Amino acid sequence: MDKNTLSLFQLCDSNFPTGAFSHSYGLESYIQADQVHDQTTFSKWLHVYVNEQLVHSDGLASRLVFDALQDGKLDQVWKLDRMLTVQNLPRETREGTQKMGDRMLNLVGSLYDVPVLLLYRDRIKKKQCFGHPAIVFTMIGHHLGVSQSTTILYYLYSVISSLVQNAVRAIPLGQTAGQKVIQGFQDVLLEAVDKILGLNEEDFGIISPGLELSQMQHERVNIRIFMS
Amino acid sequence: MKDWTGILRLEAEERNGKTVAKNVYFQGAYKVMRPVYHDHSGQVCYYILNPGGGYLDGDRYQMKIALNEQARLTLTTQSATKIYRTPKQPAYQETEIILKKGSYLEYITDPLIGYKDARYQQKTVVKMEKGATFLYSDIITSGWSPDGEQFSYDLLQLISEIYMDDELVVYDHIKLNPANHHMASLGYMEGFSHLGSMIVVGEQVNADLLDQLYHAVHEDKGDYKIGLSLLPVSGLIVRVLANSTQTIEKIHTTCHHMISRELFNTIPSFLRKY
To answer: What pLDDT does residue B273 have?
Structure first.
């Protein structure tokens, strides 16, 4: 692993303080309905979340943002920031993601001196942009000279490692079970990256009906440990 | 690519408290019936007909609806939209809706039924001015096949884009292709056969209205699953998973009534169909 990849790896740590530990993206709705209650059912949920939702939203956006940064087409980046936000129809998930994007941007802004980060922050302040962690992450990956596919892969990894930690706390699962899920998902993530690289722009934002519904239902969950 | 199977243009405006068509044009396999005034509100209702009875291989439909300031229109289909098998080209429908300030469109579509081996793509673009109100609903069924098998269609894809003063504010993308999915699985259709959506965009929509709707329609029996949320713009969405068209229609009707009362102090008319 070279220095730049190691630098990007810092952002994948589930302890990297973006607030990911307080978002379950609808998982908590399934836990409360007892549809997710152990390692097997959690893996099933995570599978659908990665392959149906993440791939078509954050994953594809990361790829397109990387291309746009490569070509110096910033308008394209800002357009994707809007697309990511307005395709996310469950309010809690949308607002939570936006908050995470904002926190992540502030944090990496203290670690890296990159003009595009400042520009992004400025646009958010002026309400011209919303803020999204996939875009911030991709900006850093691109800045560090990490390849597109590795940037996407690491982003997906950062998402699932946080979700696994959340599942360990909420279901609850043993720490070993959690690590087994992460290990089992290494191939799944590699395949997801291949899938993302093969998608068309027109595949952006395809929803998974049940997942989306559970994210909306979370607004009405009474006793909760997560904000989404 | 300009050979349309059916074209429909409808521009309506408000004249002395009554909404009237300024321009109606249809051609090919699209037709609208004569306007109906269900009550004395001045709101006009148009029924869209598909004389062919369904969408065939490679059919392409285009609809453009425009409402001038203060115009109020109900637009609905006459019966379910059936998509027959499409061996060569998917059937396609594109709709453009322009809503000027103060106008109101309720676009209530009948269920979509994909037959065995059918492919269908639909793109709806709504361009609103601030102060306009838009209400839309649809129902996607598990389709039809001779042996009663569910989800025997190949593709149903519905994309809706809503712009407010030229800015994209809602993007909804549903793409169901049963060959690539285990439809019944957790996170997908979860054992249900029908998917219903209702989207409302308008300045007066707020969290109070969402709460009212939630209390009126949240599930207590478990024969359907429902999610409601506020949109990125002033507006809301209701998504339902259920096992029949009737279940979703009932929920949509309840929501439609509450929304009409809250926003306009009116009661929607019963839409008579064959």
So the answer is: 74
Chain B residue with the nearest C-alpha to that of A26: B187
Q: Is the pLDDT of residue B1 over 60?
A: no
Of A205, A210, A220, the CB nearest to B173: A205
Question: Is there a contact between A91 and B229 if contact means CB atoms under 8 Å apart?
Answer: yes
Cis peptide, bond prior to residue A133, ω within 30 of zero = no
Instruction: Please answer whether residues B8 and B64 qualify as being in contact, where contact means their C-beta atoms are separated by less than 8 angstroms.
Output: yes
> Residue A61's closest CA among A72, A45, A71, A76?
A76
Beta carbons of B75 and B65 less than 8 angstroms apart: yes
With a threshold of 0.90, tell me whether the complex ipTM lies above it: yes
| Shortest alpha-carbon distance between residue B102 and chain A (Å) | 24
**What is d(CA A73, CA A70) in angstroms, rounded to the nearest whole number?**
8
B2: closest CA of chain A, how far (Å): 21
Sequence spans of domains, chain B: 6-194
- Per the prediction, chain B carries an average pLDDT of 95
Tokens of B31: 């037709």
- How far is B162 from B202, CA to CA, in rounded Å? 12
pLDDT at B53: 84
DSSP E strand boundaries for chain B = 6-15, 18-28, 31-32, 44-49, 60-67, 72-77, 81-83, 91-99, 104-108, 112-114, 119-128, 133-140, 155-164, 167-176, 194-201, 224-230, 235-242
- pLDDT 10s digits, B194-212: 999 999 999 999 999 999 9
Q: Class of A25-220 per CATH?
A: mainly alpha
Beta carbons of A207 and B173 less than 8 Å apart? yes
- Say whether pLDDT at A222 is over 90: no
User: What angle do the packed helices A115-125 and A74-86 form, to 10 degrees?
Assistant: 50
The answer to whether residue A188 scores a pLDDT higher than 70 is yes
Domain ranges of chain A: 25-220
